[in-house]
Amino acid sequence: MSMKTQVLKEFAEYHFNALEETLKGLDEAEMSYKPTEVSNSIDMILNHVCRISNTTLPRIAQAGGDPNYEPVDWPKDYKDHRYRIERYMADLSAGKKLVLESIGKITDAQLNEQVQTWGGANSRKVKLFDFIGEIIHHRGQIAYIRGTVSRLRSKGDFPSS
Fold first, then answer.
1. Residues 5-29: pLDDT tens digits?
2. Is the pTM of this model over 0.90?
3. Do the domain assignments include residue 160?
4. Cα 66 to chain centroid, rounded
5. What are phi and psi of 52, to 5 degrees?
6. Contact 1/108 with Cβ under 8 angstroms?
7. CATH code for position 65
8. Which residues partner with 87 through β-bridges?
9. With CB atoms counted within 10 Å of each terminal CB, which end of the chain scores lower, N or C?
10. Count of domains for the chain
């Protein structure tokens, strides 16, 4: 593994681990809370992040891979369902494992290959930056919601778990 690939893999692993840490102790009430009527809940955010980590990132990271890759038994309608935290954590863990293994196999030359996603074509490196950035971004959203719930609970303005 090249130094570039090693650093990219460690960066992705750090942010997956940070997301998992942010989710520790999450309960169903927090998971469904929406700060405003039009906001996303942690449930909705986790559904999105699990799809990124199990489909989009592996499609980008697997050099020469299938642009339509989905894990075996991955529900075609995953985004249309809400799952319990245990399912999301298992899906996140599986996606993390696949993404890190796939990044570890990328060569420096493959980092520069063009890959196509719904957002257009760019180098594999840039697309990995973009979608690892999604993990970081959504972790921040989850931390915001959890902090809000914590403050509401401390004031007695949120149902206890």
1. 999 999 999 999 999 999 999 999 9
2. yes
3. no
4. 20
5. -60, -45
6. no
7. 1.20.120.450
8. none
9. C
10. 1
Asked if residue 147 is part of any domain, the answer here is: yes
Provide φ and ψ at 116, rounded to 5°. Answer: -110, 130
What is d(CA 57, CA 117) in angstroms, rounded to the nearest whole number? 10
Q: What is the 3-state secondary structure (H, E, C) of the chain?
A: CCHHHHHHHHHHHHHHHHHHHHHCCCCHHHHHCCCCCCCCCHHHHHHHHHHHHHHHHHHHHCCCCCCCCCCCCCCCCHHHCCCCHHHHHHHHHHHHHHHHHHHHCCCHHHHCCEEEECCEEEEHHHHHHHHHHHHHHHHHHHHHHHHHHHHHHHCCCCCCC
Residue type, 14: Y
- 161 inside domain: no
Q: Which amino acid appears at position 56 of this protein?
A: T
Domain of 102 in residue numbering reads as 3-154
